[in-house]
Write a structure and sequence with these properties.
16 strands; 403 residues; five-stranded mixed β-sheet; alpha/beta; 9 helices
């Protein structure tokens, strides 16, 4: 009798603050692992309900699991230790690490990486994940006979994915930025070592992207520009960079405005209060009320407040978002060069830009004077799912089995 031996399936679990996916990793002829999406759920993997939704229609997924989580799920600690063999770090690190944390070390699982050695010291980056999250993931997948083999931050999987696509030279310093829905993950790889990682809170606008080429904002548009209004008997004149005459159609004349101000009580009931003899409260100083009225009127802002259309609001929100991305990349580059004394960054790779890629590329090039590359498309085995950053991170996490 012939028996068929079934191989274990290789799986990947990835997610950000808004979406999570479970995928099967398939070996491909080109060397870049294929991604077959098994399920997708809205929500963060920190939420137990998200994992339940993700697995509710899954039956048979026995195998091994690689997990890649956004960097902001982790706490990062930078530690200097006396220089020692790598084999001794696991015994020494817990003592030094516990002194830097606000919580007990038992509340975390952690991994470490040596960044560099200087004379008799060495610098480590330690990545700590709450043990409560890890235990929940492990217990849930144990019910499906799936064992967690690897767990890491998204930036590690991203560089593994880029390496498979040969998008950078390992001997040259490369910066990678991952644009999630609520955060940006940034990492710098030098000499095939991830020497700097950081995460930035930056929410992507909820509205669909509008390209700057699709938005026409005229120079004489008053939106966002402060204009001074002068009232005349003929109507209004808005004084600014360009004078705009407004015809007197339904606009009060100066005489009508004066009559309206005369009958308008700026001081409430107190100004009309008189004593029992009928004399005014300001009888002793008849100019006081007039001076106060003049002072208040001079403080009134007659500036035209900008009224933005929905299209303009969307465009400005996306402009701010693109500027934030460019600024954070610039800060990382400057810190890496001046404080960490790293090599000059030669390449910038961005994942998750989507429809705003062209304008983002132009913004970064104007700010940094550097060319940037976009994440390549992933090799999807399931054609009904669009290519996106989660698919790329899945593929990167799957390279552990097909190195």
């Amino acid at each position: 009798m012939r028996f068929s031996l079934r191989k274990k399936r290789h799986l990947a679990l990835v997610g950000d603050s808004s979406t999570s996916i479970l995928a099967e990793i398939l070996k491909s002829a080109g060397g870049v692992p294929g991604v077959k999406i098994l399920s997708r759920a809205e929500g963060s993997l920190k939420d137990k309900q998200t994992l339940s939704k993700l697995l509710e229609n899954i039956t048979d997924i026995k195998g091994e699991l690689s997990i890649a989580l956004p960097l902001h799920f982790f706490e990062i600690s930078s530690i200097y230790l006396p220089s020692m063999p790598e084999g001794a770090i696991d015994k020494t690190l817990p003592y030094h690490l516990s002194k830097t944390l606000d919580k007990p070390l038992s509340d975390y699982i952690f991994d470490w990486q040596i960044n560099f050695r200087v004379k008799d010291r060495m610098h480590l980056n330690v990545y700590l994940l709450p043990v409560s999250l890890f235990n929940h993931l492990r217990e849930t997948f144990n019910n499906f006979q799936v064992s967690i083999t690897y767990i890491e931050a998204d930036i590690f999987s991203a560089f593994a994915f880029l390496d498979k696509h040969e998008l950078f030279n390992k001997n040259e310093t490369t910066l990678c930025a991952l644009l999630w829905s609520h955060n940006i993950t940034i990492g710098v790889l030098e000499k095939n070592l991830l020497t700097l990682t950081r995460t930035v809170v930056s929410k992507r606008p909820d509205t669909p992207y509008i390209s700057i080429n699709d938005t026409l904002i005229k120079e004489n548009d008053t939106a966002g520009i402060s204009k001074k209004v002068v009232y005349t008997d003929e109507g209004e004149k808005i004084i600014g960079d360009n004078e705009i005459e407004v015809k007197n159609e339904g606009v009060l004349s100066q005489n009508a405005i004066d009559d309206l101000l005369d009958s308008f009580n700026l001081f409430g009931d107190a100004a009309e209060t008189q004593d029992k003899t009928g004399s005014s409260l300001n009888q002793e100083n008849p100019l006081a009320l007039e001076e106060t009225e003049t002072e208040i009127i001079s403080n009134i802002d007659f500036t035209v407040q900008p009224v933005l259309s929905e299209e303009q609001q969307t465009r400005y929100a996306w402009d701010n978002y693109l500027q934030t991305i460019s600024l954070e990349i610039m800060r990382t580059r400057d810190y890496y060069g001046t404080v960490q004394k790293g090599d000059a960054i030669k390449h910038i790779v961005v994942g998750g830009a989507g429809d705003c890629w062209n304008d983002l590329q132009e913004t970064i090039m104007e700010s940094l004077g550097a060319d940037i590359l976009q994440f390549p498309e992933t090799n999807l085995a399931s054609a009904d799912v669009s290519t996106n950053l989660l698919n790329a991170i899945c593929s990167g996490a799957g390279t552990r089995w097909y190195a």
